[in-house]
Amino acid sequence: MNRSFLANTRLLAGIVSAIIAPIIVLAVAKQACAQSATVPYPKMAAMDQYLMTQDAEVAMARSAAPESVSKDADVLVLDRNGYRTAIKGSNGFVCAVQRSWTAGIDDPDFWNPKLRAPICLNPPAVRSFLPRVVKRTQLVLDGKTKEQLSAAMKAAFEAKEIPAIEPEAMGFMLSKQGYLGDQNGHWHPHIMIYVPQAEPTGWGANLPGSQIFGASDHTDRLSVFFIPVPKWSDGSADSGDSGSH
Fold first, then answer.
1. How far out from the chain centre does Cα 116 lie?
2. pTM score, two decimals?
3. How far, in Å, CA of 76 to CA of 120, rounded?
4. Where are the beta strands (DSSP E) in the chain?
5. Domain ranges in the chain?
């Protein structure tokens, strides 16, 4: 990996908040922005700004993983009623494009209508992580504020409506097409690992020289680890440029 890439990864080692989506790496390198007195996206935009055409969304969702994975995966698309299955697959994976509200509650991009975070989840993540994405989306479409969403997620966990994260839950985020926020652009291709809430340093994450980044999300009761990899889903090498695109 080139010097630019290593410099970027060292810069990101101070992560203190995370998405559940995997979005994108929606929490990486945003702490300084979160401290700003000016909130760039103080409320939800018009719903149309978060939507895509079905064909475009299917293509973007599939770009999250190598074709060997995504071609046989279920593909979800978002409409005004929530996520629905546009394509039924056969390998147990699910590809989707997450929106901004899967970010941490205090993330400055929480309502950013430009954000698109393509991800392909393996079967354990489909069963145990995807319900968090679906629940958050339902709450947002029901008009909930961030505070109401947080309270509703807590109630859902206490009622055991949302399962605990399963072992081996992971997701591919290898898309060149995504936009993970105004600070990150599409960052680097990476793998997401989901675990029950844990101290990231126990995984060697966020330590000097480590190329593993991690954080915990109390709203979704999990920790997520971001592991950069050298190639995008199309096989091309990461240039090391993590700026906005």
1. 9
2. 0.83
3. 10
4. 74-79, 82-87, 94-98, 117-121, 170-173, 190-195, 213-217, 222-228
5. 3-228
